[in-house]
Every structure is written in structure tokens, then in C-alpha cells.
């Protein structure tokens, strides 16, 4: 591998690159899909290639190829240089990178039980047992159950002498039960809509106990068909971790991406209301209970690594501290523009994509004092919202709206009934300022999503979110005509 | 300085004959390894994208990629494996992996088998591939981007966007005799212009022919829209008649395809579709037509099955849905040619959505509005309730108040939450002009629409 990376860097430098890096990535994937007791798909995928990123005359160029050959390294490096020169023809701000030390070493996410070594038939049987438990519930129209594993071997090298090797393994699984009656369609997912995911081995999947939990969730999907509609109004809401992580993702993670702030995602995903003046002004993002950290070292998180994809060491970067906005997700190019060093958030989706600023593990830290159940007990009138069903936020990450799979009506500190089709909406900073309780360490757990989209060409990111549950006051719920 | 290689771009990634030969070879290997049925899909992609922001190019990438997707059956035991490795070891591993999986999976009881050839040769799609697009260079993309930026400069705005050119070869072979291979090209530009006074504007174009895309024209459209949306005023959310530009309409037809007109959605009971059901005004006709020359033509799907023209809604009435081989088998039908690469738990999906043009001049949609809103595009839409097609999202890049048929000024962006079925039922005028843009499932050809009631449920600060 070193021959190839050396050759690409050498060629890029010879052709005029002032900086170059190369990533060689091999990705192995496996997935199982079951629908309503029927094995719909079993697949494995293997992808391998390399990408060369260069700076020439202050402009970026990037090219990639699936052919791991020395002469192809020359061609790809030369293409990247040519592209950079074309980029330089429309350049106003030459690229300046921060001066991180050369990165060297090896990193591997811990795996107890290698998911690729567990016999396929055993994995199918585990998932089928969970799916059939849900199918067996009277009133379930269809189920969708999934298991997936991904492993990446990444080698990074740069003209500054960096050379790192990483092996990162992610696994996920879920059962989704759907009940349909006329125009009504209700679903419940376990452990999470889209799957419970972690950087781990098959031990994480076993720990989900899908087969034991599926029936209860299916029962609830059926019960929701005849549950009352969630009425409109302004309510106190408590977000279960399965919903709170998506709230953090959309309204805290994305707006703190510094490339968004500088406009480089403007035409696609949009920009951010968190302009740099808000950093210097100590903008009040949330209540003083709210502390959020981008922690690429968090155990089990899908945003955990040794180095990011431009060789910056994993670190924990405070984003919100006691409610005040204090930091961004950043890169070697963007951080110097606000007088800081990279926070190590550059990540690429495979070998054929350019690294972008991505979330690592964006964690809402627990607050000592009350468990989630104790927060419910402390709530006289409210809604407990669980499992994200729909999400949307404006192009500056201010106006958001979520739908959840279920709402539990809370009266006198107890969950007293189900409400269907719950939605809630708000303005990001007003919402977070209304947070008056965050559950403690007892409910703090690592969640995440394997389908965070960003960039052009499109990239799918795996990101982590550790959260514990939280309460918010005076929130608009029950949006739209039903 | 010594260069070992030329930096000139190579020929397009793969030729149809090479891709098909590889697909055939992989099928034979799989059969030799014990498969009773085998299908190989080979996608060779040579694409590049030039991205710009703050009126400069900030990302510029090229990709040379090949994917081989192998699906086999041993009896009714089905498995899929894919690889990006084209070397001998990579292909041998591919076959070894998939033939190791299949014996260990349960039988798919209603497996209908891989598709059979329909007996007629697949006609060539001369409009699917345009050499000028395949030959586009970093320099030619940069030149068009500079034209976009110049338009922004002319009004004191900043330009953001991307310009993608791609050539791909799609080849399919299966053990029943399916043989299909086709070269296709795509050129796609989007741009958002932002003025220092808070205005933003959008423009987009897509074609198989890169020479049909003018950076200057798109830049002028976005720049004009940006300046005309300066200093937007707040407006109360509520129910308004709207005119939706083509960039907004694409979201409605995309969601219709995903939520309603896939045979999977119908078979699982999650679709609103019922044959003969009236779900739109009689001005609404939507179909999937891979032969429409205004879109991006394609002759076959990812199973190598000929693409059929499938009317979803004709004059407001539900007609047909999309099938792939497996959902067609379950329904006792033939595939309509809307398969995506296996394994695909979503089932058949659109690829070439077309909404028929109407008879109204585009400007008349606005001049006939007593009081309402003109919406340029939507942002981050998502389904709230699939069976009712209730969707939420934001407006973006140019929302305007219209009174007595005239645009009176820009308004701040609004959130909507409403049923897209209600939207189609409320269509009261359809423009006779159409645009080709890119939606979630490929090229879409759509007109602007006037809709009598649109439910806005929230507002934002810009």
C-alpha cells in the first residue's frame, strides 16, 4: 500500500501540488433484509480504491480510482492537479491549512465478536426470530427488519509525512412493525427507526434482544391505529433518547458545521444561522443545562476514529457549554479562518469522495439529578415523544418540525395513554432555551444514524449521538390538518 | 518537473460491449459455481463535479468507478453480492461470496425467478448518450461556472452551486438470456445566488447534452430572482393559493412515485393508490416515461427489462403502478422495467417522471392569482403520514406575495404541512412550458402549477 501512496504523493508534488494527501479505502459490507417473515435480501459488498486530494496554486483538486496500480496512481494524481488548476481559474481565497503535526499510527474500533465471522445463517435466524415475533401480532400488516455491518480499512498519507492506518467496524439492526387500517398507517420501530447502530461487533446486536422486544412494539403499532389524534396546542414535551438524538443531529450538529457557515453547502443543504459573530458574542444557544460536545473518542460512537480524513487526531470539541455557543465542527482549512485549529471533523464516504466537515459523535451531556423516569414523574402535564418518524428543518437550521412514532400523554407524572401522529415544531434556539431538564447518566446512551446526507456528489455519513432524554416547555405540537 | 503521465482525461468509462462481456463472464462463473439462475449488473461510471461557493470553485472532483452486482438463485434461495474490484481475485471473491451465502438463506417462497427476455430487441436510445457530455473537461466546466459567477457579479450577489457531468455504461446479463447494455450521459447544473440584502435565487437545468446547459442563462435567472427577493417581509402562515415553480413541483411528483405508485407500496398496503380512484384535478396527468426526449432516456432497468411508459394519473384518475420482476410476479403481471439494483427492499421506483404540460402561459398562472404566494422551490421535505401523503417542508430561494395578479414583494420562508393528494386535487392551472430538472429518482420533466389552497403552518426568520 505504501508504494501506491508514495507514488501518488510524489507525482502530485512533481506536478506542482504544494500539498497532497491520499486515502486508500477498502470497505466490506453485509446486509440482511426481512419483510413480513420473508427473507427479501442478503447481500455483501466490497469496494476498494483511492482518492488523491491536492492543493495547486491555492486551489483544491481531487480525483479517485478503483484501480490500485502504480501507473493509475500517477494518472489520478495528475488528474487531481489538472482539476486544481482549473479550480484556480475561479478562485478568490487561496487555501490555507492549519499546521497540525504529521499523523502516524494505527487505530481500530473495539470488536468483541467479529460480525463478519458470525455465521450468516445464525444472523439470519436471529433477525428472523425478531421479525416473526412482530408478524405474529394480530393487526400487523407488514414488517421490515434489517441487519447490517460495515468495515473499513483506511490508509491515509500526506506530503507532510503523515501515514495512518485504521480499521473501523459498525453494526446495526432493527425491527419495524407496521399496522394499517384504511387510511391509517402506524408503525413502531425497535430499537430505533432506521436501526440501532454502534461502532462495535455482533455483541451489540445480541445485546439489543430484538426477539424479546419486538412483540411489545408491534402491539403498540396496532394500538396506535385507534388511539386519539395528538391535538394541537402548546405543551411540555419530553423527548426519549430515540427522538432527542435526531433533535440534536438536525438542530445542533448540522448548524455547527463550519463549512456550512462559510457557505460551501449553500446551494444544496443550506447554510447556518450560527454565523461567526455568534461565537465571539457567546450566543445563548440553549438553557444553562445544555452542554454539547463533538467527541470523536466516545466509545461505541459511529463518529469515533483515530484520525479524521485529513490526519487530524480524534478529540472532544465543546460546541455548546452551559447553554452558550462555544465552538464549531471544523477542518484544517476552515478553522484558521476563525483563529482556531482544526477540531478534526473531516470525513469522507469511501475512497471516491472528498472529505467534508461531518459530525463525529455529537453528544448532549447528561445532567446529574434525575433519571428520565423521574423527569416524567416530575411533569404534571405533558407529552412523552419517542422514535423519529419524520424530520425537516429550514436551510439555516432554524425552523424545524419532527413527527414521532408515538406520544404518551402525561398527567400527574404518569404516562396515561397513547396519541397517534404526534408532531412538534419550533425555532432552534428558542427550543433549546426552553429545556428545563436533562436526564442523568443512568439514561445516557450512544445512538446514531448511518444515513446522514451531505455534499455533492452525495455522501452518506455514519454519525453518533449520545443522549439521555430531556424536557422542553411551551412547545407547539399537533401541526397541520388531520 | 517530470511527469510520468498525461493529465488528459481518458475515454469514457467502459464501452457497452466491454460492460456486457464482463456481465456475461460473471454470470457464467456463477452458473459454474452452482447457481441455478444468475444476473450480473455492471455499472461503469466516469463522472466529475465542479462545485462553487462564494463565487469561487471550492471543490472539484473526478471519479472513475465500476460496480459489479451479482444476484444468484439456487432454487428459491437468493443472494446478492457486489464488488468494485475488477481484478481476477476480486471477481473470484464476488462469486465465492454469493455462492457461499445462497445455500444458507431461507427459500423465498414466492420467488418469481429472474426476468426473461421479451423476445424483441431493445431499441437503441440515441438520445441517452451525447459525446460532448462524456468529453467535458475540468476547463469546460470551469468556463460555465465562471459564466454563472459573472451573472452574480453583475448584480452584486454571490454564486453557489455545482456542475456535474457524467458518462456511465449500464450492462445487464442474466442466465435466461437477458442482454442489455447502454451508454448514458448526464449534465446537471444548479445554482443559488445570494445578495447582500437577504435575497436568494435558484436556477437549475439538466440534460443528456452538456451543450444545452448555459451557465450564463442559469446565472441570469438566479441573479434576477435573488435581487427580486431582497429584504423579504414576514407573512402570517395560513392557507394561500400558490403558484409553484417547476423546482417545487418536482417534489410533489417524486413523493407520489415513492409513496403511491410503486407496486411494493401497493402490495404492502401502505399506498393511497386504488385503480380508478380520483386523486387529482382533471388537469393532472403524471407518468413514468423513459422515452420522453425532454428527460434522460433509458431503454431498460437494472434487471435489463425494457422500460414501459406507465401512466400513474391520467386527468386526475389513478391508472397504473410500477413493477419490477419480483413484484410483477407476485401480482401476476410483467415487469414495467422499474427495478433498481438488488437487493432493493423499496421495490420498483420511478426513473423518468413526466408531468404533462397544460395550456396556460407560465406568466398567466401568476396574473390569475387574486392573492397568493409564488414559491420557487421547497427545502428538506419529508413525509409525515405516508398513506395520506402528508408532507412537511420549507420554501426556499424566492417566495413572493402576489396580489391582484402582480408580484408585490418577497416574503420570508414558510413551513408547510399538507397532503400532496390535496395539492393535486387543488391544481387549477398547468403551465404549457416545462423544465427538466433532477429529482430524487433521476430526471423529471414538470410544468409550473397553480394550486388553489396550500397550508403553511410555520415561519422562519429569513
Describe the overall structure.
- The complex is a heterodimer of chains A (482) and B (462).
- Helix content of chain A is 22%, strand content 39%.
- By secondary structure, chain A is of the alpha+beta class.
- In chain A, strands 1, 2, 3, 4, 5, 6, 7 and 8 form an eight-stranded mixed β-sheet that branches.
- In chain A, a hairpin with a 5-residue loop joins strand 16 (381-393) and strand 17.
- In chain A, helix 1 packs parallel to helix 2 (70-88) and helix 3 packs parallel to helix 5.
- The termini of chain A are far apart.
- The relative contact order of chain A is 0.14.
- With 462 residues, chain B is an alpha+beta fold.
- In chain B, strand 5 (179-194) and strand 6 (200-207) form a beta hairpin.
- In chain B, the strands form two sheets. In chain B, strands 3-2-1-4-5-6 form a six-stranded antiparallel β-sheet. A five-stranded mixed beta barrel of chain B has the order 7-12-13-15-17.
- Chain B is built from ten helices and 17 strands.
- Chain B has helices spanning 16-32, 88-101, 131-134, 138-154, 215-228, 246-259, 263-267, 325-331, 362-367, 420-425, and strands at residues 37-53, 56-74, 77-83, 158-174, 179-194, 200-207, 239-244, 286-288, 310-314, 317-318, 353-355, 371-385, 390-403, 406-410, 414-419, 427-439, 442-459.
- At the A-B interface, strand 1, strand 2, strand 3, helix 2 and helix 3 of A face strand 1, strand 2, strand 3, helix 2 and helix 4 of B.
- Strand 3 (59-65) of chain A pairs parallel with strand 2 (56-74) of chain B, so a sheet runs across the interface.
Topology overview:
The complex is a heterodimer of chains A (482) and B (462).
Chain A: H1 2-14, E1 19-35, E2 38-56, E3 59-65, H2 70-88, E4 104-108, H3 120-135, E5 140-158, E6 163-181, E7 184-190, E8 196-198, H4 202-208, H5 210-225, E9 233-239, H6 241-253, H7 258-261, H8 276-280, E10 292-295, E11 316-321, E12 324-325, E13 346-347, E14 356-357, E15 362-364, H9 372-377, E16 381-393, E17 399-411, E18 414-419, E19 423-427, H10 428-433, E20 435-438, E21 445-454, E22 459-467, E23 470-477
Parallel strand pairs in A: 4-6, 9-16
Antiparallel strand pairs in A: 1-2, 1-5, 2-3, 5-6, 6-7, 6-8, 9-23, 10-11, 10-15, 11-12, 13-14, 16-17, 17-18, 17-19, 19-23, 20-23, 21-22
Chain B: H1 16-32, E1 37-53, E2 56-74, E3 77-83, H2 88-101, H3 131-134, H4 138-154, E4 158-174, E5 179-194, E6 200-207, H5 215-228, E7 239-244, H6 246-259, H7 263-267, E8 286-288, E9 310-314, E10 317-318, H8 325-331, E11 353-355, H9 362-367, E12 371-385, E13 390-403, E14 406-410, E15 414-419, H10 420-425, E16 427-439, E17 442-459
Parallel strand pairs in B: 7-12, 11-17
Antiparallel strand pairs in B: 1-2, 1-4, 2-3, 4-5, 5-6, 7-17, 8-9, 8-11, 9-10, 12-13, 13-14, 13-15, 15-17, 16-17
Helix pairs in contact in B: 4-5
Amino acid at each position: 500500500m505504501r508504494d501506491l501512496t508514495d507514488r501518488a504523493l510524489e507525482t502530485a508534488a512533481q506536478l506542482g501540488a504544494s500539498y497532497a494527501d491520499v486515502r486508500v479505502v477498502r470497505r466490506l459490507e453485509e446486509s440482511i433484509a426481512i419483510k413480513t417473515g420473508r427473507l427479501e435480501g442478503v447481500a455483501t459488498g466490497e469496494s476498494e480504491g483511492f482518492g488523491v486530494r491536492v492543493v495547486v496554486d491555492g486551489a483544491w483538486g481531487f480525483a479517485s480510482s478503483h484501480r490500485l496500480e502504480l501507473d493509475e496512481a500517477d494518472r489520478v494524481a495528475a488528474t487531481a492537479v489538472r482539476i486544481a488548476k482549473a479550480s484556480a481559474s475561479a478562485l478568490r481565497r487561496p487555501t490555507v491549512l492549519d499546521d497540525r503535526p504529521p499523523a502516524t499510527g494505527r487505530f481500530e474500533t473495539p470488536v468483541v465478536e467479529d460480525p463478519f465471522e458470525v455465521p450468516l445463517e445464525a444472523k439470519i435466524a436471529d433477525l428472523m426470530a425478531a421479525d416473526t415475533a412482530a408478524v405474529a401480532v394480530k393487526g400487523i400488516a407488514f414488517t421490515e427488519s434489517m441487519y447490517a455491518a460495515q468495515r473499513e480499512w483506511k490508509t491515509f498519507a500526506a506530503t507532510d509525512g503523515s501515514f495512518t492506518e485504521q480499521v473501523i467496524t459498525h453494526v446495526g439492526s432493527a425491527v419495524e412493525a407496521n399496522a394499517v387500517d384504511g387510511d391509517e398507517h402506524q408503525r413502531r420501530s425497535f430499537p430505533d427507526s432506521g436501526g440501532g447502530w454502534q461502532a462495535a461487533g455482533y455483541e451489540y446486536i445480541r445485546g439489543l434482544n430484538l426477539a424479546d422486544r419486538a412483540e411489545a412494539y408491534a402491539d403498540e403499532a396496532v394500538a396506535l391505529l385507534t388511539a386519539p389524534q395528538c391535538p394541537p396546542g402548546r405543551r411540555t414535551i419530553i423527548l426519549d433518547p430515540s427522538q432527542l438524538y435526531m433533535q440534536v443531529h438536525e438542530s445542533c450538529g448540522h448548524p455547527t458545521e463550519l463549512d456550512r457557515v462559510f457557505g460551501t453547502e449553500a446551494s444544496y443543504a443550506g447554510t447556518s444561522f450560527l454565523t461567526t459573530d455568534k461565537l465571539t458574542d457567546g450566543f445563548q444557544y440553549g438553557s444553562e443545562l445544555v452542554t454539547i460536545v463533538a467527541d470523536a473518542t466516545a466509545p461505541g460512537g459511529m463518529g469515533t476514529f483515530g484520525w479524521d480524513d485529513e490526519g487530524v487526531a480524534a478529540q472532544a470539541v465543546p460546541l455548546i457549554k452551559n447553554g452558550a455557543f462555544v465552538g464549531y465542527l471544523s477542518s484544517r482549512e476552515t478553522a484558521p479562518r476563525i483563529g482556531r485549529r482544526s477540531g478534526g471533523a473531516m470525513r469522507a464516504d469511501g475512497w471516491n469522495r472528498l472529505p467534508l466537515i461531518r459530525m463525529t459523535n455529537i453528544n448532549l451531556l447528561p445532567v446529574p439529578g434525575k433519571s428520565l423516569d423521574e423527569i416524567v414523574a416530575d411533569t404534571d402535564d405533558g407529552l412523552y415523544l419517542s422514535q423519529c418518524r419524520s424530520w425537516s428543518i429550514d436551510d439555516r437550521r432554524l425552523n424545524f418540525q419532527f413527527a414521532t412514532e408515538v406520544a404518551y400523554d402525561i398527567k400527574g407524572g404518569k404516562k396515561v395513554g397513547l396519541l397517534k401522529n404526534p408532531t412538534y415544531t419550533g425555532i432552534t434556539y428558542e427550543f433549546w432555551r426552553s429545556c428545563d431538564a436533562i436526564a442523568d447518566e443512568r439514561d445516557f446512551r450512544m445512538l446514531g444514524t448511518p444515513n446522514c446526507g451531505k455534499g455533492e456528489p452525495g455522501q452518506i455519513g455514519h454519525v453518533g449521538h449520545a443522549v439521555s432524554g430531556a424536557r422542553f416547555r411551551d412547545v407547539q405540537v399537533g401541526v397541520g390538518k388531520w | 518537473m517530470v511527469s510520468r503521465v498525461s493529465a488528459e482525461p481518458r475515454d469514457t468509462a467502459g464501452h457497452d460491449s466491454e460492460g456486457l462481456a464482463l456481465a456475461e463472464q460473471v454470470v457464467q462463473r456463477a452458473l459454474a459455481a452452482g447457481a441455478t439462475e444468475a444476473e450480473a449488473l455492471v455499472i461503469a461510471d466516469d463522472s466529475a463535479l465542479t462545485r462553487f461557493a462564494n463565487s469561487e470553485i471550492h471543490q472539484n472532483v473526478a471519479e472513475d468507478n465500476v460496480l459489479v452486482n451479482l444476484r444468484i438463485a439456487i432454487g428459491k434461495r437468493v443472494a446478492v453480492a457486489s464488488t468494485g474490484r475488477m481484478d481476477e481475485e476480486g471477481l473470484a471473491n464476488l462469486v465465492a461470496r454469493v455462492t457461499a451465502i445462497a445455500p444458507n438463506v431461507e427459500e423465498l417462497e414466492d420467488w418469481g425467478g429472474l426476468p426473461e427476455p421479451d423476445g424483441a430487441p431493445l431499441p437503441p436510445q440515441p438520445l441517452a448518450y451525447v459525446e460532448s457530455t462524456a468529453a467535458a473537461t475540468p476547463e469546460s466546466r470551469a468556463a460555465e461556472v465562471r459564466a454563472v459567477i459573472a451573472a452574480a457579479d453583475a448584480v452584486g450577489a454571490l454564486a453557489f452551486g455545482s456542475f456535474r457531468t457524467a458518462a456511465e455504461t449500464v450492462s445487464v446479463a442474466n442466465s435466461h438470456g437477458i442482454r442489455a447494455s447502454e451508454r448514458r450521459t448526464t449534465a446537471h447544473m444548479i445554482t443559488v445566488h445570494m445578495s447582500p440584502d437577504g435575497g436568494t435565487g435558484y436556477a437549475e437545468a439538466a440534460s443528456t447534452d452538456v451543450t444545452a446547459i448555459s451557465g450564463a442563462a442559469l446565472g441570469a435567472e438566479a441573479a434576477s430572482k435573488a435581487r427580486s427577493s431582497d429584504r423579504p417581509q414576514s407573512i402570517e402562515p395560513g392557507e394561500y393559493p400558490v403558484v409553484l415553480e417547476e423546482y417545487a413541483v418536482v417534489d410533489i411528483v417524486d413523493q407520489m412515485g415513492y409513496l403511491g405508485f410503486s407496486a411494493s407500496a401497493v402490495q404492502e398496503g401502505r399506498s393511497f393508490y386504488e385503480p380508478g380512484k380520483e386523486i387529482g384535478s382533471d388537469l393532472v396527468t403524471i407518468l413514468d416515461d423513459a422515452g420522453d426526449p425532454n428527460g434522460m432516456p433509458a431503454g431498460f432497468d437494472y434487471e435489463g427489462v425494457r422500460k414501459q411508459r406507465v401512466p400513474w394519473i391520467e386527468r386526475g384518475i389513478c391508472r397504473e403502478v410500477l413493477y419490477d420482476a419480483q413484484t410483477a410476479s407476485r401480482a401476476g403481471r410483467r415487469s414495467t422495467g422499474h427495478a433498481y439494483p438488488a437487493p432493493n427492499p423499496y421495490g420498483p421506483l420511478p426513473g423518468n417522471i413526466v408531468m404533462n404540460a397544460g395550456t396556460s402561459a407560465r406568466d398567466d398562472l401568476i396574473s390569475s392569482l387574486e392573492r397568493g404566494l409564488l414559491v420557487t422551490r421547497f427545502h428538506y421535505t419529508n413525509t409525515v403520514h405516508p398513506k395520506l401523503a402528508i408532507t412537511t417542508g420549507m420554501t426556499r430561494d424566492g417566495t413572493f406575495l402576489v396580489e391582484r395578479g402582480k408580484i408585490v414583494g418577497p416574503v420570508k420562508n414558510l413551513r408547510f404541512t399538507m397532503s400532496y393528494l390535496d395539492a393535486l386535487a387543488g391544481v387549477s392551472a398547468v403551465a404549457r412550458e416545462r423544465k427538466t430538472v433532477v429529482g430524487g429518482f433521476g430526471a423529471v420533466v414538470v410544468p409550473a402549477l397553480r394550486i388553489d389552497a396550500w397550508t403553511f403552518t410555520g415561519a422562519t426568520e429569513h
